[in-house]
Design brief:
Number of strands of chain A: 12
Number of helices of chain B: 11
Shape of chain A: globular
Strand content of chain A: 15-25%
Radius of gyration of chain B: 21 Å
Number of strands of chain B: 12
Helix content of chain B: 25-40%
Number of domains of chain A: 2
Largest sheet of chain B: 8 strands, mixed
Structural class of chain A: alpha/beta
Oligomer: heterodimer
Largest interface: A-B, 45 and 48 residues
Shape of chain B: globular
Radius of gyration of chain A: 22 Å
Distance between the termini of chain B: 33 Å
CATH architecture of the largest domain in chain A: 3-Layer(aba) Sandwich
CATH superfamily of the largest domain in chain A: P-loop containing nucleotide triphosphate hydrolases
Strand order of the largest sheet of chain B: 6-7-8-3-9-10-12-11
Distance between the termini of chain A: 11 Å
């Protein structure tokens, strides 16, 4: 859905990162018998047409259930997963050109800090590793490697940094390890961070501090941050914008306040319904689990589970046939707030739909 | 009489580095049909309590205090009696549903096994019973013939729940039953547990690190920190009007979407939970506490009354004033 998320009149500066109609597929599994008979495995469309933009200094949360393609999207953005189709532009250039320089500017923070750190390396070595890989011996102002490492650790909240240089990961707590991972990213002076579930492996009381650190890094250094998360509460506490993914596509994207308090897509509403709170179990909960990405339903990919279709609301609005038969892209239904829903397009008002859906395939 | 009554429970793990006090004096009461939520961070001792209740801890672990289940002392039970009590009176739903099932046995047989071992029914009757149990947990009876790998994570957890119900226990211990599941499936499983609990009049001890999950299913909440319960009371009061600063911080770690005070303002506590071998003096929470004052490093607070059936181990609670004043008067100890 290429041009949908562009509103040329609103944004003057070009986005830092632009993903256009990204598709990533994996070969599906196939039985031995079928394989011997020469049958090909069905392709699993993990990411099936994702477009998004990220501006400097912006925090975008990419949310959804496991298997929705959010991590694969993040990995493709990092250049770790080859796209089948689509483009990823960084500062206006394709990332496939000059991947090494790109990887210096864009750093990733993984979910599990214990797995991300080499247990046999000291904290100093772990943080300095990026510098060594990129053969950076001095900072832009002539800083030594040691000064760069100390500055990164200190920015990540490990103070005084020298105290931790000779520690090993097992001597630190989970929260401190994640700070070291973040320091390892910051040491290269990146302009963008991709954080995949940065706090879900941490204890509840420690999470807030790590999230606050991410926000502070953004404020101090002007970094753009893409946060991949299953937790909409996390999106509420740190994100400027939220994108909700379902079965390989973004089904809703917009300003966090708007998406999380006035959602347009029934899937977003369903996700918000299951954010735990008192009495929440009395609210409707979607049944079943997301379908397998080798068999994406026709029409709107959410329609088999959509409560609006099941309750007849879609029929009453006269869109049920389109829900079942017509694939759709994102439509701007409120300023800066896009959703891929036939029903929302009608109920929010056709007139407000600035860019229309384009049927696919 | 309570269904489960735990008094002054201490658990010390034996390690090469000396004993590790994982639970340090815990009292728990659960009445028939009541749901108690036990929350805390990793290492606070909550899963140790679950293990202690059915004596599932490693041999050599030192457990003292009393655990009365239906008035019967669990710690003094002979092995035969203990085996009978496990599953028929109290069963456990574990966190890792994915790994708790035998991968090479059909799930129906695994549920049936529990019924047969405990002589709850003959083979034919047990078979019928399994079908009924699967239906009860929302799985089609044809799933009886499935192997675990044919089921999704949520379905496996449903099988685990069916298994826990197989021998009609009066108490279910659910240790992080939804942690490994996706949000939507987590909500489905929680709803199922709540409905079963209500319909069957089950008592439940619901253990998790996710306080927001507990508020949906529990009547009462107990919050643990460093091996002790630091606040206990009616679920709503504890979550929304927390008397202990630690409970407040834990509750705020699960922000309400749409609420302005959480927007762009993640809240957390500085520092990390203490190691059980190296606990701070006085109140164990004081080094991380945003409200700590001069008395906190010196006085180890017991649970003070906050309201009816609601207690907190914090010197800031009104009913702690006499203790504070006694400490200030020279010559008298805390």
């Amino acid at each position: 859905m290429p041009p949908t998320e562009q509103a040329p009149d609103r944004e003057v500066a070009p986005p830092l990162l632009e993903v256009r109609d990204l598709k990533v597929t994996f070969a599906g599994r196939i039985g031995l018998g079928a394989g011997l008979l020469g049958r090909k495995a069905t392709q699993s469309r993990a990411v099936d047409g994702v477009s998004l933009q990220l501006r400097r200094g912006e925090v975008l949360a990419l949310a959804g259930e496991s298997g929705c393609g959010k991590t694969t999207t993040a990995r493709a953005i990092m250049g770790l997963e080859p796209p089948k189709e689509g483009q990823i532009l960084f500062e206006g250039r394709k990332i496939s050109k000059g991947l090494r320089a790109y990887r210096r500017k864009v750093q990733m923070v993984f979910q599990d800090p214990t797995g991300a750190l080499n247990p046999r390396q000291t904290i100093y070595e772990s943080v300095a590793e990026g510098l060594r890989i990129h053969r950076i011996h001095h900072g832009p102002n002539g800083e030594t490697e040691q000064q760069l490492v100390a500055r990164a650790l200190s920015r990540a909240g490990m103070r005084p940094p020298e105290r931790f240089f000779l520690n090993y990961p097992h001597e630190l707590s989970g929260g401190q390890r994640q700070r070291v991972v973040i320091a390892g990213a910051l040491v290269l002076d990146p302009v963008m961070l991709v954080a995949d579930e940065p706090v879900s492996n941490l204890d509840a009381s420690v999470r807030g501090e790590i999230l606050r650190l991410l926000l502070q890094i953004r404020d101090d250094l002007g970094l753009a941050i893409l946060v991949v998360t299953h937790d909409l509460g996390l999106a509420w506490t740190i994100a400027d914008r939220v994108a909700v993914m379902y079965l390989g596509r973004i089904v809703e994207i917009g300003p966090a306040e708007d998406v999380l308090t006035r959602p347009l897509h029934p899937y977003t509403k369903a996700l918000l319904n299951v954010v735990p709170e008192a009495g929440g179990l009395d609210r409707p909960i979607l049944t079943g689990e997301p379908p397998d990405p080798t068999r994406i339903p026709p029409g709107c990919r959410f329609h088999p589970r959509c409560p609006e279709v099941a309750t007849g609301a879609a029929r009453a609005a006269g869109v049920e046939d389109r829900c079942r038969g017509e694939d759709l892209g994102l439509m701007e239904l409120r300023p800066g707030h896009f959703a891929a829903c036939h029903l929302a397009a009608v109920t929010v008002g056709e007139g407000q739909a600035i860019s229309s859906s384009q049927p696919k395939r | 009489m309570s269904l489960l009554s735990v008094h002054d429970l201490f658990v010390n793990y034996r390690t090469q580095g000396g004993p590790v006090p994982a639970v340090r004096g815990v009292d728990i009461e659960i009445g028939t049909g009541e749901v108690l939520g036990l929350a805390g961070e990793s290492g606070c001792g909550k899963s140790t309590i679950a293990g202690a209740l059915l004596r599932l801890l490693p041999t050599g672990t030192e457990v003292t205090g009393s655990i009365l289940l239906n008035g019967e002392d669990v710690l003094g039970m002979r092995p035969g009696r203990l085996r009978a009590v496990r599953w028929t009176e109290t069963s456990i739903v574990f966190q890792g549903a994915m790994h708790a099932l035998n991968p090479v046995q059909r799930v129906g047989e695994q549920i049936e096994e529990a019924i047969l071992i405990h002589h709850q029914a003959g083979e034919r009757e047990a078979h019928v019973r399994v079908g009924g149990l699967l239906e009860q947990v929302g799985l089609p009876p044809r799933r009886i013939k499935d192997y675990p790998h044919e089921l999704s994570g949520g379905q496996k957890q449903r099988v685990m729940i069916a298994m826990a119900l197989a021998c009609n226990p009066s108490l279910i211990i659910a240790d992080e039953p939804t942690t490994a599941l996706d949000v939507m499936v987590q909500a489905q499983v929680l709803k199922l547990l709540k409905e079963l609990q209500r319909d069957l009049g089950l008592a439940m001890l619901f253990i998790t690190h996710d306080l927001s999950v507990l508020i949906e299913v529990c009547d009462r909440l107990a919050i643990m920190y460093a091996g002790r319960i630091v606040e206990e009371g009616p679920a709503q009061s504890v979550f929304y009007e927390s008397a202990h600063p630690y409970t407040r911080a834990l509750a705020d770690a699960f922000p309400a979407i749409g609420e302005g005070r959480f927007r762009k303002a993640p809240s957390g506590l500085p520092g990390d939970p203490p190691y059980p071998q190296d606990l701070p003096g006085g109140c164990t929470f004081h080094p991380r506490c945003p409200l700590a004052f001069e008395a906190c490093p010196h006085i180890d607070p017991r649970l003070f009354d906050v309201g009816p059936g609601w207690r907190a181990a914090c010197l800031l609670v009104d009913s702690a004033k006499p203790v504070l004043e006694a400490a200030r008067t020279p010559g008298s100890g805390p």
